[in-house]
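Whiteboard transcription, Tuesday session. T.W. wrote the C-alpha cells on the left side:
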C-alpha cells in the first residue's frame, strides 16, 4: 500500500479540530470557536486562504510574518523540489555544505558592511539563544539588556528577554543577569550601560508587540552608547527583516550598524524552519577561536539543504519581484488612508508603522455614550474593543487580522509583501466600514461586543 498525504487529507480533512481537542492544545480550539475563526482551510495561494465553502480570505497575518512572499510561492517550491530530487548529500557530519555558504554570502551582501559572518539555526528563538552565548563569550560579561514590552522568543533563555509578563509567569527561574529598560529611552539605557557590565543590548528596531516605532535619534544614539560602554548591539530583525518595513532591514531606516542581526521567519518563504545570526568577524573569531572549538555551538538541522535552498530562492523572489519597494508603497497607502479618517472616528487613535508592519490603535472616545460602551468592554477584558474590529473584518470582509498583543487596543497587520493596489483599497474600505459601525451603539457590532464581554467575564469567574 502506497502512503499518500493527499489521501490522508481527503479521508480526515474534517477532523482537525477534534484531533487538536484530543491530542494537542484544546484551548486554541476554544479560542477559534469563540471568536468564529473556526474555518477549514483547504488551499493557500499568494496572499489568499480558501476554505471548504469556497470562500477566499485576504491573509493580513501571513503566519506570524513567515509568508512574506505569499503562500506556496512557485519559485521556492521549485527550489525545494530540485533539492529533494537531486539526491544531494545533506548534513554530512564531517563536511561543510555548499548551499549554506551560498546563502550566507547572499545574506551578507544585504547587511551593513560591518557584518561579515553567518551562523544558521532553526528558528528565531534559537538565533536569540545563540546571540546571548556569543555576546557573553565575546565580551566576558554576563548581563544582558532588553526593552520593556519586547518579544524575543519563548525558549528559556530568550524568554528571559521577553518584556511581557504573561509569557514568563509560572515558568520558574529564568536566565539570570537579564534586565529590562524602557524602549525609546536613552537616559535609562545609558544608566544601565554605564557600569560597563552589559554584554549585549537586544532591541527590536520596531517592537512587534504593538508596532512601537522609536524616535529617529534613538537607534543611532543606542549604537553610540553601546560602543562607548563596550556593549554589543544586537538587532532582533526576526520579524522586521527581509523587506517587512519597506527597507531590507529595519536598521536601514536609521543607518545603524549592529554587531549582530538576528533573522528567521520570512527567510525560507514559510516552508522550512530556519534562523540566522549575522555578526562581525570579531565575534565569530572570538567564539570559534580554535580548531577544538569548531563545534562549540551549533544546531543539528541548522544548515540543512532544504532550509538553505528555500532561503536562496526566497531572497531571489524578494529581489526580482521588488517586494521591498512594494512593501513601502502599499504600507504608506494603507497607513495614510486610515489616518485621514481620524477626525471622523472618535475610537480611532492612529495608524502607524513602516512598510507592511502596521498597527491600527484605538482609544477611549470623548462623547459620553461612546465612552460608556468603551468602559463596559474594558471592564470585562482590557483590549476587548479590538475584537469588535477583527471579527467583523473576518466575517463580513473575509480579511484575517488579530490583536497586536495581550491587553492592547491595537490591531496588527503583517501581510505578505506582494499585496496589490486592489488589496490595499479593499483593506482601507473594510477598516473604514468596520470602524464606522463601532460608532453605532445600537448596531449589530455592539451586540457582538456584549457577547464578547459576557464570555470574558465568564472566563474571569472560572
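and on the right, the sequence the group agreed on:
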Amino acid at each position: 500500500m502506497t502512503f499518500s498525504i493527499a489521501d490522508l487529507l481527503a479521508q480526515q480533512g474534517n477532523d482537525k479540530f477534534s484531533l487538536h481537542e484530543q491530542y494537542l492544545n484544546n484551548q486554541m480550539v476554544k479560542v477559534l470557536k469563540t471568536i468564529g475563526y473556526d474555518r477549514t482551510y483547504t488551499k493557500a495561494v499568494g496572499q489568499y486562504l480558501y476554505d471548504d465553502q469556497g470562500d477566499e480570505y485576504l491573509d493580513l497575518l501571513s503566519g506570524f510574518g513567515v509568508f512574506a512572499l505569499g503562500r506556496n510561492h512557485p519559485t521556492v517550491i521549485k527550489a525545494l523540489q530540485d533539492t529533494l530530487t537531486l539526491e544531494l548529500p545533506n548534513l554530512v557530519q564531517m563536511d561543510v555544505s555548499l548551499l549554506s555558504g551560498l546563502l550566507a554570502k547572499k545574506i551578507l551582501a544585504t547587511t551593513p558592511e560591518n557584518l561579515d559572518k553567518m551562523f544558521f539555526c532553526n528558528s528565531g528563538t534559537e538565533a536569540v539563544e545563540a546571540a546571548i552565548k556569543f555576546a557573553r563569550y565575546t565580551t566576558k560579561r554576563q548581563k544582558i539588556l532588553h526593552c520593556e514590552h519586547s518579544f524575543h522568543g519563548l525558549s528559556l533563555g530568550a524568554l528571559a528577554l521577553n518584556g511581557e509578563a504573561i509569557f514568563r509567569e509560572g515558568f520558574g527561574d529564568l536566565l539570570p543577569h537579564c534586565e529590562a529598560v524602557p524602549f525609546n529611552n536613552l537616559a535609562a539605557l545609558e544608566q544601565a550601560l554605564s557600569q560597563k557590565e552589559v554584554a549585549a543590548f537586544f532591541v527590536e528596531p520596531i517592537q512587534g508587540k504593538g508596532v512601537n516605532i522609536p524616535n529617529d535619534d534613538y537607534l543611532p544614539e543606542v549604537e553610540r552608547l553601546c560602543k562607548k560602554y563596550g556593549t554589543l548591539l544586537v538587532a532582533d530583525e526576526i520579524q522586521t527583516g527581509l523587506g517587512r518595513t519597506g527597507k531590507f532591514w529595519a536598521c536601514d531606516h536609521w543607518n545603524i550598524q549592529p554587531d549582530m542581526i538576528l533573522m528567521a521567519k520570512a527567510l525560507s518563504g514559510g516552508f522550512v524552519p530556519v534562523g540566522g545570526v549575522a555578526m562581525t568577524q570579531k565575534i565569530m573569531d572570538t567564539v570559534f577561536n580554535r580548531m577544538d572549538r569548531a563545534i562549540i555551538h551549533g544546531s543539528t538541522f541548522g544548515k540543512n539543504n532544504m532550509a538553505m535552498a528555500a532561503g536562496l530562492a526566497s531572497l531571489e523572489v524578494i529581489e526580482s519581484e521588488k517586494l521591498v519597494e512594494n512593501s513601502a508603497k502599499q504600507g504608506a497607502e494603507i497607513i495614510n488612508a486610515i489616518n485621514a479618517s481620524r477626525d471622523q472616528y472618535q475610537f480611532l487613535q492612529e495608524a502607524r508603522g513602516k512598510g507592511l508592519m502596521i498597527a491600527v490603535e484605538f482609544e477611549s472616545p470623548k462623547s459620553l455614550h461612546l465612552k460608556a460602551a468603551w468602559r463596559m468592554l474594558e471592564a470585562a477584558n482590557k483590549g476587548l474593543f479590538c475584537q469588535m474590529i477583527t471579527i467583523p473584518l473576518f466575517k463580513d470582509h473575509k480579511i484575517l487580522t488579530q490583536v497586536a498583543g495581550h491587553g492592547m487596543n491595537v490591531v496588527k497587520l503583517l501581510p505578505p509583501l506582494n499585496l496589490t493596489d486592489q488589496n490595499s483599497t479593499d483593506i482601507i474600505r473594510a477598516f473604514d466600514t468596520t470602524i464606522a459601525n463601532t460608532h453605532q451603539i445600537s448596531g449589530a457590532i455592539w451586540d457582538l461586543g456584549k457577547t464578547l464581554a459576557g464570555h470574558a467575564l465568564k472566563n474571569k469567574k472560572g
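Someone added at the bottom: Residues 95 and 333 are 49 Å apart (CA to CA).
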